[in-house]
Automatic annotation (TrEMBL):
GO terms for cellular component: U12-type spliceosomal complex. It comes from the Eukaryota. It holds the Pfam family Ubiquitin_4. Residues 77-168 form the Ubiquitin-like domain. InterPro entries: SNRNP25, SNRNP25_ubiquitin, Ubiquitin-like_dom, Ubiquitin-like_domsf. GO terms for biological process: mRNA splicing, via spliceosome. It comes from Xenopus laevis (African clawed frog). SUPFAM superfamilies: Ubiquitin-like (SSF54236). This is MGC68520 protein.
């Protein structure tokens, strides 16, 4: 049995277990929201125990699960984005992603990180992209429609946030 089939079987088992839990409750009785959230969190905890998904956080989103699966099947790549404070963010994008796709993935990554840490609630991305640009091997990624491949960016390559210089 290959990994994909094995993983699908595990997910089907988890789905069946969750379905059984819901069916055991009286059909007329509605579950309180807190109980539904608890059951959902238990299901997510089981999914995250899968060897393919063990790197994901406990409060995982469906998008993160899909990205991790796409990585495993070679349909996506990880771009390491380095900030000025030398923090490296592993951002997942599809193989044929554009610079705009990378920027949106960076935004989602940072927003999820702040939600989980209880940090800043709102970031002005318009300001961020007006103040900084992305750079790969000293070349500005200034054409948002251009694919990352055209810039030579491959899986696990590093892209850097660089502060724009003011024009005088």
């Amino acid at each position: 049995m290959d990994i994909k089939t094995e993983t699908e079987c595990e997910y089907n088992d988890i789905e069946q277990n969750l379905s059984d839990e819901f069916n055991q409750e009286d059909a007329d009785e509605e579950l309180p929201h807190a109980e539904v959230v608890d059951i959902f969190q238990e299901g997510l905890a089981m999914i995250v125990q899968d060897p393919l998904l063990c790197d994901l956080p406990i409060q995982v989103t469906l998008e993160e699960i899909n990205s991790q699966i796409a990585l495993e099947y070679g349909q996506a790549m990880t771009v390491r984005v380095c900030k000025e404070d030398e923090e490296i963010m592993p951002v997942v994008v599809v193989q044929n992603a554009t610079v705009l796709d990378l920027k949106r993935a960076i935004q989602r990554y940072i927003q999820l990180k702040h939600q989980r840490e209880g940090g800043i609630q709102h970031i002005s991305w318009k300001y961020v992209w007006r103040t900084y640009h992305l750079s790969y091997s000293g070349e500005k990624l200034d054409d948002e429609a251009k694919s990352l491949r055209e810039y030579g960016i491959k899986n696990r390559d590093e892209v850097v946030f660089v502060k724009k210089l003011k024009n005088k």
